[in-house]
Amino acid sequence: MEFSDLIEYSFVHLKHRGIRTWLTLLGIVVGISSFILLVGIVDGMNASIQEKMGEFGSDIFTISPGGNAREGGPPGMGSSMSADKLYLDDVETIEKVDGVGTVSPVLSVSVELEYRDKTSERTVTGVDLETYEDTNVMSDLLEGRYLVSSDKGAVLVGSSLIERTFSGKVGLNSRIEIDDKQFKIIGILDENSSMGGMGGGSIYIPIDDARDLAGDSIASEEVSKIQVKIDNGYNLTAVVDDVEEALMEDHGVSKDDMDFTITSSVLMEAQRTEILGTLTLFLGLVSAVSLLVGGIGISNTMFMSVLERTREIGLLKALGATSSQIRNIFLVEAVVIGLLGGILGILAGYLLLQAVSLLGYEGHISEFMLAISFGVSLGVGAAAGTYPARSATRVPAIEALRYE
Hints:
Layout lengths: L2 H14 L1 H39 L3 E6 L20 E2 H8 L4 E16 L2 E10 L4 H4 L5 E4 L9 E5 H6 L10 E4 L2 E9 L13 E4 H8 L7 E2 L1 E6 L5 H16 L8 E5 H44 L1 H9 L4 H36 L8 H27 L3 H6 L2
Parallel strand pairs: 4-9, 6-8
Antiparallel strand pairs: 1-11, 1-12, 2-10, 3-4, 3-7, 3-11, 5-8, 6-9, 7-8
Helix pairs in contact: 1-10, 2-8, 2-10, 2-11, 8-10, 8-11, 10-11
């Protein structure tokens, strides 16, 4: 019996038991689609985190108010809310640490933007005009220029702010009101602006203007965060440790009750490894259980098929079919079920991944992982069908012919 005959023979019998075939396929479809979905989400998260790490820079780190997040928790989640503040004195403390190059304070203020009849509640970022270019990963400009030391009443905006908030009605040299104060747009950042990690919807003004907008809502020398660039030739981790020690001493706190958070590419890499390790373990368990259930379903279906076709097996043997030919009939049938389930699972997983992407969660699946999924479905089908196929060869021909 040729291989093409085995394939055709398998499809005839699978079609004959249509409902059972679809129910058996479902187990493999669920297993493969969950594998595709979870791998895609993990790969997407990995790519996103690596992109953020690239924006951060290998020689730059950020200090934010809020304690004990250094181990990987989010910044600003310390327990001492009133004490978790940063000030210009902290900038001076950091500048004295060996290996520190540029220290740039940043002040974020909640404001109301207004242009003609359009208003929006936003957060503006005030940057130190002397130092921000060294400590921010700058994006390309669509139009205009960056802020310079002589600027006052000037603003840099992202293109998405213009499109989403002002419907494209403002542009370069337009004047907008920020808390009833006039600001002139001197530059427009591209939609994927990475400056300060805030994206194209960000708004940047001189830090002195931001302090004027904040008024009495903050202390006179308070800052929202401090960005630090190390000198060439220094190790980032070592400088981060020294800055941490200096700030703890200056604040009079211990490592257990730090009132600030340090974030760097090194710490983000450690966090990324931990998160992805946990997700990968979860991925493996979910996929393994799903595929195990699918494999058991194939085995059960094939055992039932052997039982139902006992007389057919006897007839084939009486006509001269060898044990290997009998085995191959059922083994190929199991493999076909696995492959069909794999193909449908890949399609279902891809569609689910696209749906998840529409919700804002980036997903990505490589051709290599698609090939792995296809191979796994084939392997599950072959493994699940091996024992039922062998049991079919042990059916005595005479007894099989008498079977009703």
